[in-house]
Write a structure and sequence with these properties.
With 331 residues, the chain is of the alpha/beta class. It contains 15 helices and nine strands. Strand 6 and strand 7 form a beta hairpin. The chain is elongated, with a radius of gyration of 25 Å.
Length: 331
Amino acid sequence: MRATLLQETLNELFKSKRPVCIEGMPGGGKTTIVQQVANKLSVGYIEKHTPTMLVEDFGVPDMAVEGNSFGYKLPDWYPAEGRTDVPDEGILCFDDRNQAPADIQKVLANVLQARTLHGVPLKKGWHCMSTGNRQQDRAGANRILSHLRNRETVIELETHLDDWTSWAIEHEVKPELVSFIRFRPNLLHDFDPQRDINATPRSWVEGVSDVIGIVPADAEYECFKGAVGEGAAAEFVGFLKIHRKLPNPDSILMNPSQANVPDDPATLYALCGTLAHKATLANFDRVITYVGRMPKEFSVLCISYATRKNDELASSGAFTKWAVDNQDVLF
């Protein structure tokens, strides 16, 4: 399931409180999606990293009581019914659940199904979700106990280029990386369990975008290689060289009807990203004039970038005229 549809689905499943587990290849953004759902719903969020938890983290016998019986002391993270120091509604996320040992899975099965922990009910407004890698990805995932699996809905996250692009633009991922991934979409999530290092949405953002301009230029390849692997890093460094040799976008926008339009696809992708990042209400008509001289697929790509980054551009007269002229590819 694509990320956009998954978020919509989780929003609706929150109402039913049906336990959900999101599975997929490592680095695809499973946990981030759950966090975003909680933010969108404006509810509480508690995340527990299950591979590092012990059974005792779910409660221990309380022997320091008078009488002939004893109960359990519950952990402070558990949003128990009756607590006033946690929100009435929220998402309790068991992260990397598939890496948890069988003893932890047994505890989780009761929390998910009975919505209790040692007999203490979970707050009615809280929803249990889990995330996990797939066994075939060899990322430490264990076999899930059948009775736990039967108590939840499992949804597999699919990495999708358009969804990632929208997310990347909203979260200010470097435009040169966005342009590169559009140019080489197969490298967005190029995961092979036989390799030590893989290109994933997470490693592209955290290991590449976040260090562009931070490390010395001579060290970029080595840093990128350590995040996304040799092949992907080599291609991106080559793309960066093209990007950095592009003409000044200001000079293009000064004379958009006469400025040179390259014909190399890699250069066009890089230039689309640069112009989209540069676009404002004041210069959008000139951006449209220039990209209108590009092959149509690149014109659409650039305007799509720009309007996703700044939705005010879609209300401009220049965009309206461009949309009418290109309705054959928009509708």
